[in-house]
Each structure stands twice: as structure tokens, then as C-alpha cells.
Amino acid sequence: MPGKKILLFGNANHQFNINYVKWLRRKYDNVEIDILSDRPAKEATHSFYDHTYEINFKSLFFRLIKQIPILGNIYSRLILISNIRDISKYDFIHIQTLNLHAAYFALFVKKYCDSRLIVSIWGSDYYTHSKKHRNIFYKSCNLADRITFTNEQTRDHFTKEFNWEKDNVSICRFGLTPLEGLKRMRHQRRKEVKRLLGWDASRIAITIGYNLSLNQQHLQILQEFTNLTEYADQIELILPITYGGNQKYKNELLSVLEGLPFRYFVYDQFLSDEAVSQIRWASDIMVQLQRTDQFSGSMLEHLFARNVVVTGSWLPYQTMINEGIKFEEIDGIHELSDVLKNVLSDYDKFYQTTVANDEVVLRLCSWENNILSWIQLYN
Fold first, then answer.
1. Rg for the chain, CA atoms, rounded
2. Which of 78, 295, 297, 326 is deepest in the core (most CB within 10 A)?
3. pLDDT tens-digit map of 87-103
4. What are phi and psi of 8, to 5 degrees?
5. Across the chain, how many H-helices and E-strands are there?
């Protein structure tokens, strides 16, 4: 591992990638880590990598040219070559989340260099790949020397879908950096943190999702709250929507919120790690009903903070269940209001089921406990 050269492909701004690099450097300070970012890198993120290269796949020109697949593929390759003239210098090329651009990049890598290819599948990249792109997804995985998943359930689904026989899949989980802040907050009472945030300490705080993505299904969830108006004086809604989605969806979401009789807080600007930890700790209930996911870090942080979490039985959280983490599952969003009524009518009983969650989450999700499995990929 020492002295190795690694090229990451992914979002240079994503906290998973930033913290991943930080922890690799803690263990090996003389490893060279570059990133080819699939979106413009913010100025503040450049310092985490030795070199930062960028491809703006969301530019208007690229969106137009990719309508003609052959031209789109040629243009993509030209950009890649112009960004990294000597791609063969890297010992490892590591794709962090296998979207369509990353899949084409994998084909390019194996055609033009002998670097070892690692593909890390995060979750939505696997569950949302279309039938149209299934073949390219399979081809890119088939070229990989190692493939990683964050949980056993997704790994098993993958191996079954593609009849995978290669012995090159493994479980590698990202650590949750906010756990460090949450650990420091253990001595603080929840009501004190609510007051720091300006919340009503006498109300039960219900956090809905953790970003603005349509995948979070905010609108469908809020529809269920029309059946909970009798609790309007007892609860307040918390919506962290600092990234994802679009302005149209945001406007629609805000309009729906304004039409409900509940007190609410919307967080739509960048939040510091401390602020994120405070929101997790101050929340009492977290509703997490994404269409797809793999191993939700934000949900795990709420579980560490002993929130009563309501999530979907369709999400691949069997690993959490097997490890003894307690949360409430529903089979469809239409069941949400009934479950919340049960929780609100006897919150202390439901809270008691969560008291051991923090130690299990810490064991599963701290960077200290997870970085070794990533390091082994480079040996």
C-alpha cells in the first residue's frame, strides 16, 4: 500500500469520498490519491486530493451531444484522455459509485491500461440501473478486479441477478464521520439541543428524509400527515434538504408544507458537521422511506442518536436487523400515519427499544472499524 498511486472516479465534493481519503491518509501518509470528478469540484475540496481532474457531464453541450450515443461516447473518451494523459501510471483505479458515466469509464480503463480496477457500488447506482443500461453495467463489473458493496443483502441480490461466479466481491462500508460529533453529544439532553436549534423543546421532532432528492418521497410522506392533524400541537417537522433535487420540486415541497397545520423547520443551506449532529440528536423520530437505498448513513446516525426510525421493508436493511438494530418497518407509505399514531401515543415505550442501538451502530459504522477492509483492496 505505501507508495501506491490511486485514481478515484466519482464526486470530489461528496463527504464519503472526502472522509475516505482522509482516513486512507491517516493510515498511509505517502499514498498518492487523485480524483477524476464527474462534476465540478468545489475550491475547498481540492486540498483533499493530490490532483483533481473534472468532467462536467451535466453541461448543456454534453447533454445535447449524448443524444447521439456514438458521438457521446467519443466525446467522453476525448475528455478523459485530455484530462489524464498517462492513466497507466496508476496502480489502482477505483470507481466510487457505478453510474452510467462510470461504467463507460471502466470500459475505457481496461482498454487503455493495466491498472487494477475496483468498483464500489453504493446503492442507488445498482438499484436504479435501467434494463437499457443493464448490459453496460454488467460489462463494467465483469472487467473489475474487485467489486465492493456496503451490505450483504445488495451483494446477494447482485450475485443472483447476474449469476455471478467470480470470487471478487466483498463488503466495504464507509465510516460515518458525524458519529464522532454525536459521541461528544451523549452527555447533552435532547431538549437542550432542541433549544439551541430554536425548536420547541416540548414537541416531538419528526425528521423527514435527509436530502431534496425525489427518491426521498417527501410529498407522499407529507400526504400521510394530513391524517395526523390532531397532533398539530404536539409535533414539529424537520426537513434537511441541503442537496439533491431541483428548484421546481423544492417549491412544490414548500407549498405543501405551508398548507399543513404543523410547525416546521427547513434546512436548505450548507450545514456544518456540528449542525448535522445537532439535528440528529435533537430529533425524536426519523421517517426514512426512500424508493431505493443500500446502507443509509444518515439513518444510521439517527439510530445512533436513539431516534425512533420508521423505514420501508422494501429497503435492504437486513444486515442492521441481523446485528440487532431496532427500528419500525412498514410495507408501504400508506401505513405511515397509523404507525406514527402508535408511536406518538406511547413514545416512551418505542424509545426504550432504541437504547442499545448506539453501541451497535458504533461497532458497524465507525471509520476506525471500517477502514481496514478498504485498505485490503489495495494489497
1. 22
2. 295
3. 888 999 999 998 888 88
4. -90, 145
5. 18, 13
Residue range 205-223: mean pLDDT, rounded:
96
Place of cell 483492496: 377
pTM for the whole thing?
A: 0.74
Contact 253, 225 (CB under 8 A): no
Cell of 33: 490519491
What cell numbers appear for 185 in the block? 453529544
Residues 254 and 175 sit within 8 Å (Cβ to Cβ): no
Per-residue pLDDT tens for 157-171? 899 999 999 999 999
CA distance 270 to 276: 10
Integer distance in angstroms from the first to the last C-alpha of the chain?
6
Q: How many residues does the chain have?
A: 379
DSSP 285: E
Q: Which three cell numbers stand for residue 82?
A: 485530455
CA distances in angstroms from 125 to 33, 99, 133, 197, listed in the order given: 23, 5, 11, 34
